[in-house]
Amino acid sequence: MSAFFMELVSRTDEARREFETNSRVLDIVANGLNLERYRKLLLELYHVVWHFNPTCAAAACRITDQHRDVRYFLYDHMNEEKGHEEWVLNDLQVVGVSGEQARAYEPTLVMLGLNGYNYWSADRRHPCSVLGMLYALEVVASVYGGQMTAAITESLLLEGDRGISFISSHATLDAEHLADLRVVLNKIEDEPAQAAVIESTVFNFHQFGRVLESV
């Protein structure tokens, strides 16, 4: 079996470190966010989640039988992620933003760039690139989500997981998803697919850092 997962970790480590040492990320982890900035973060995250399954679907419909394990993995993963945008909307409701306001929100250019790249890469680059999106976002959620949850909860004086349920729950869920993702990544042995996953991972770490800088 290929050891691609460990190669992916190694070859994208610089991008991950750039993300975790970003001054804005460090500030959020240490000090949380004020109400206005937290609202904007959730509004941006809504567009990550709303486009997550459509991006996966765009990839799944182009994946050949050579990578059928990836296709089946995406089917299962999309089913698990279905409806998670409602979690974001629930948190927004708690902090004073209605569902109507959330759906009318225009995402930042950096968010448009994040989603645009992921759609383009799935459709034009290589459909397996979507696994790079999954890997980067799940690392961010599982490694840093818990710290951000604690800091934001304290800075906004939130009670329990009210208003922070999306970030809090994904800190745990995505740690479990990473284990499943490792298995399917290790089944990818051809160089074009591997290269696409690596490029996508590097871009998603980079661009998600820019998203956090924008809030």
Outline the structure in words:
By secondary structure, this protein is an all-alpha fold. The protein has a single domain, classed as Heme oxygenase-like (Heme Oxygenase, Chain A, Up-down Bundle), CATH 1.20.910.10. It is 79% helix and 0% strand. It is built from eleven helices and no strands.
Task: Describe the structure concisely.
This protein is an all-alpha fold and 215 residues long.
Whole-number total of structural domains: 1
Please report the first level of CATH classification, the CATH class. Mainly Alpha
- Main structural class: mainly alpha
- The percent range for strand residues is under 5%
Residue share in helix? over 70%
According to CATH, what is the topology?
A: Heme Oxygenase, Chain A
The H-level CATH homologous superfamily, spelled out, is: Heme oxygenase-like
Envelope shape:
globular
Quaternary arrangement of the chains shown?
single chain
Our measurement of the CA-to-CA distance between the termini, rounded to an integer number of angstroms, reads 42 Å
Looking at the overall shape, the CATH architecture is Up-down Bundle
**Spatial extent as radius of gyration:** 17 Å
Low-confidence stretches: none
Q: Describe the biggest sheet?
A: none
Task: Compute the average pLDDT.
Answer: 92
Characteristic key phrases:
mainly alpha; Heme Oxygenase, Chain A; 0% strand; 215 residues; 79% helix; globular
Write the layout of secondary structure elements.
Elements: H1 4-11, H2 13-20, H3 23-31, H4 35-60, H5 68-81, H6 85-94, H7 99-104, H8 109-125, H9 130-156, H10 165-185, H11 191-213
